[in-house]
């Protein structure tokens, strides 16, 4: 999972990160507007709107945008980056094999690639052809790589260095089980070959090509020429990361200046050829002021022209924009949250008790304490808006199971399932259960509502509230602990890329249960679901894949794998003369589409 | 020399308005000091010696201080003079030294600097260099060895006695006509005390400088004062030439003071008796004679009648006292006390009633 | 001093390396990082070595190469980050110190001399307000009132306008005016009160009476004799305050987005970037220790009775 915004001090709730298709908006192809590509496609619970559509393609060219960011960038090396804001910069300055257009997170478009990926019948081989004539640009015009063509070898090296401990890519080994990858430390990998300068072939140890093909939208597939990074990668850690101005850029922009935690400047990449790229790249230049105070930044964007805030605005700013300048604020969905229920031991090893737990949960109250509809929607299933399969799983409404239907908690339905589980009174008086939750607002209040709700079923909830990082690292990601824990109240997920596999497999496949760093806190392990997931992972066709995963999502709700309760939203704000465009797959601005009026 | 005294204090009263009430620190005192004369001002702690003398130069002035009376110095009333003129007199024609020589010198400045500052405050156009020479000269004059070498030393580098010499040098730097020495030896040990007093006496004689010597120790003034005033509770209760005062003191408080100093002629076995009882409150002062609360010879009338300061007897105009006891009784009482009797015995001998005073 | 730093470094090392609530390797790997990946990162960061070896390496790096390791967050050398941030913090601190002393002295002196007067009451009341107002809040209010982007009265440069002095002296100066004022306000208030009470006490000293008895003007008495002695307690506090501020004025730097040591530390804490946290803590400790030494020296300069 990608890092999300770190929100230690701000009043805004912690947002699990991810991306968004216009929720209901995906089926009413909304007309594009010139004011930042927002339309009023309403979300399930109403009041806030998601970004959707693109502005007309004749926006004004040129100008300098000032970007404010509260958070600092982390790793701008595409091999290392694993954070929403870093992705934003990566994709303005580089071209990966595939990418999502900002308004459609369901389709991966060939970028460096020259056509769709080819997957072998056994699903073990993935072949991608590269466009020719794509050139590198560098800040130093005399650099030998400047103006040189991108070759398959550079993509190959990008994957090789990902396994170098000096770079340590966080997801390569998960989505790309390459032949020879387990032992690789940065050198050649048997599983990657380049038959010619414009062809790259990945060979996997198992039937993983379909999912790997989807993962090629990740920045790992951005080409890195060995002649540039090779010597830097020998250093520990690689200096290619700390000084990103030395990168070889393929995107419309180059990082001309970077001072960690202070400032970053993007200028046009003179080697970028717009005729090979569908990105309009309106702006000439972007200057980033990093480390803004969240309250001040919101005010500045509100009051001054030419500004865009890169990360989540503070709660007061969201409120102010939503009421006074609604055309300048956009919302995009951002991952999900659920309450885990231990599948392996009583009382929640009984499906009817789990259904009762979903039925009784006051998810509306939980949404309210986080900040209401501006912050997210009550979830009716697990895939979040914008992920392929979301609509197939019932969209915002879900499949309408009676125990999911009432988001404010339904005692009657809950009692029905408790009875079905053998509790004649409809309650389980005195049964003691252990719950782990967060100890800071608003997650703490959420945890307490979970506790109250479960106590309505008669459970005696012993709540242990801990720091957010401890919640994960010491409890809900440790199998040895999870076997004793009945409920993890604050589990959230942001998928690495826009594919249902990246969302559901790690969270609910029995095969994803690992001793440490696991992400299946329910320890949910249902053979039928496991088999369905394994099969769905190998489907390459977009429509069939979405359908298969939508069905899996429905199975998970039917089997009450956990209590789905929240789909986070991220707000984005910009000055009135800025046409902001949100990349739904990243819930953040797509800088290659932003323009000034 | 004219007949007019150098300093003439008339009905000086000083009151402090405090949270607890009005403190009558000085309650109408009058005295004169002639040129070259030494006036000893004696009294126990809290009797108003410091306040009265500091008030001469306005050093007690403040929002909550009331000063009344007249302080005539060379024909001008210091109490009504404008601030700048009083400042010109302070440290110029009248200067002052204080009890604790360490705390009275600024700890962060060299003594040279503190002296120079005094010179330059009063003598316009004196160069730093000349002022420094003057400072060195004065340090030599008051007996600081190697004044040139010591002029740049800090106060803490001197012994107590030397510091007091520095204070004196500082006071004398502008050749004052009047030096007010407020308990200059109290903080010093006995041998040093004698040296300092000798120094003051010498300077008094050599420079023809008048001195008001404040002390709570009558013994100190015996040798050098030309005139002695005894203060009690903000007032002068007895004043005379030292010979008269030591020979025939007439106020019971003076007796107490005299009996508390060791003298060569007091019998070895005779106890030194401090004045019994506590000093009175200066906020709610005793009625009648202010000393009646501590006077063994008190009579009923003394509690009501406040005695005036008047000559002890006809023809003895320069020995005045505030006491309601008859002159003869006073003489007799002192005679017995002087020969070592206690108050009770003395009272019996003089045939007067004696009240026991609790210490 | 070396020993003290060694102890501090050992303690912070223990806190940040040995007992962290989050494993930096795990943070870096992400929530689904495989055990192999985490192990590899741990190895790479040297976190798989026994704690004393890690500490030895850390100290060795500092002593031999003045090397504080690498940020887990940005992979940049910690030393470079700190050196990079130092000018901003020094600019903020020095300007604020000058400003607050300039404010505190007249207010403190007038209040001490005219005690219980209207001036005194107003000044001390105001000071109390300024002291109790949180700097962060004060900063926000100042911006909302006086900054030229989001303020009601567009007078001063707002947040995020800071540029290094080497780049443009004018912009540097104007961008720091408001932060200086905000930081100085609370400090000035405190110093004014401190000076007032110290001077009030000093003015009762015998040597002040002596100065008056010498016939010096009241001005000389108060400024040269009174204030000179009254600054002693201020010297101590000032030294420590400067030390602390050089270690980072976190809140002021945050509100005004001044990229100084404080913001570096704040960001590092938010991101569990232990190497950077450790570096900033050590630097902060270093500044405070140096400040203490300077205080001692300053004491000796101000007060000739103090000797070493
Ligand atoms: N500033 C002041 N405010 C109130 N009371 C004072 C002040 N200065 C002196 N006094 C009081 O006046 C009285 C006389 O004091 P002082 O002249 O110092 O006595 P001493 O004879 O020991 O020199 C004492 O009771 C003292 O407490
Ligand atoms: Mg006295």
TrEMBL record, chain B:
<dbReference type="InterPro" id="IPR003439">
    <property type="entry name" value="ABC_transporter-like_ATP-bd"/>
</dbReference>
<dbReference type="GO" id="GO:0005524">
    <property type="term" value="F:ATP binding"/>
</dbReference>
<dbReference type="InterPro" id="IPR050388">
    <property type="entry name" value="ABC_Ni/Peptide_Import"/>
</dbReference>
<keyword id="KW-0472">Membrane</keyword>
<protein>
    <submittedName>
        <fullName>ABC transporter ATP-binding protein</fullName>
    </submittedName>
</protein>
<keyword id="KW-1003">Cell membrane</keyword>
<comment type="similarity">
    <text>Belongs to the ABC transporter superfamily.</text>
</comment>
<dbReference type="InterPro" id="IPR003593">
    <property type="entry name" value="AAA+_ATPase"/>
</dbReference>
<keyword id="KW-0067">ATP-binding</keyword>
<keyword id="KW-0813">Transport</keyword>
<dbReference type="InterPro" id="IPR027417">
    <property type="entry name" value="P-loop_NTPase"/>
</dbReference>
<keyword id="KW-0547">Nucleotide-binding</keyword>
<dbReference type="InterPro" id="IPR017871">
    <property type="entry name" value="ABC_transporter-like_CS"/>
</dbReference>
<dbReference type="InterPro" id="IPR013563">
    <property type="entry name" value="Oligopep_ABC_C"/>
</dbReference>
<dbReference type="Pfam" id="PF00005">
    <property type="entry name" value="ABC_tran"/>
</dbReference>
<dbReference type="Pfam" id="PF08352">
    <property type="entry name" value="oligo_HPY"/>
</dbReference>
<feature type="domain" description="ABC transporter">
    <location>
        <begin position="7"/>
        <end position="258"/>
    </location>
</feature>
UniProtKB/TrEMBL annotation, chain C:
<keyword id="KW-0812">Transmembrane</keyword>
<feature type="transmembrane region" description="Helical">
    <location>
        <begin position="90"/>
        <end position="113"/>
    </location>
</feature>
<dbReference type="InterPro" id="IPR000515">
    <property type="entry name" value="MetI-like"/>
</dbReference>
<feature type="transmembrane region" description="Helical">
    <location>
        <begin position="125"/>
        <end position="146"/>
    </location>
</feature>
<comment type="similarity">
    <text>Belongs to the binding-protein-dependent transport system permease family.</text>
</comment>
<dbReference type="Pfam" id="PF19300">
    <property type="entry name" value="BPD_transp_1_N"/>
</dbReference>
<keyword id="KW-0813">Transport</keyword>
<feature type="domain" description="ABC transmembrane type-1">
    <location>
        <begin position="86"/>
        <end position="299"/>
    </location>
</feature>
<keyword id="KW-1003">Cell membrane</keyword>
<dbReference type="InterPro" id="IPR035906">
    <property type="entry name" value="MetI-like_sf"/>
</dbReference>
<feature type="transmembrane region" description="Helical">
    <location>
        <begin position="172"/>
        <end position="192"/>
    </location>
</feature>
<dbReference type="InterPro" id="IPR045621">
    <property type="entry name" value="BPD_transp_1_N"/>
</dbReference>
<keyword id="KW-1133">Transmembrane helix</keyword>
<dbReference type="Pfam" id="PF00528">
    <property type="entry name" value="BPD_transp_1"/>
</dbReference>
<protein>
    <submittedName>
        <fullName>ABC transporter permease</fullName>
    </submittedName>
</protein>
<keyword id="KW-0472">Membrane</keyword>
<feature type="transmembrane region" description="Helical">
    <location>
        <begin position="281"/>
        <end position="302"/>
    </location>
</feature>
<feature type="transmembrane region" description="Helical">
    <location>
        <begin position="229"/>
        <end position="251"/>
    </location>
</feature>
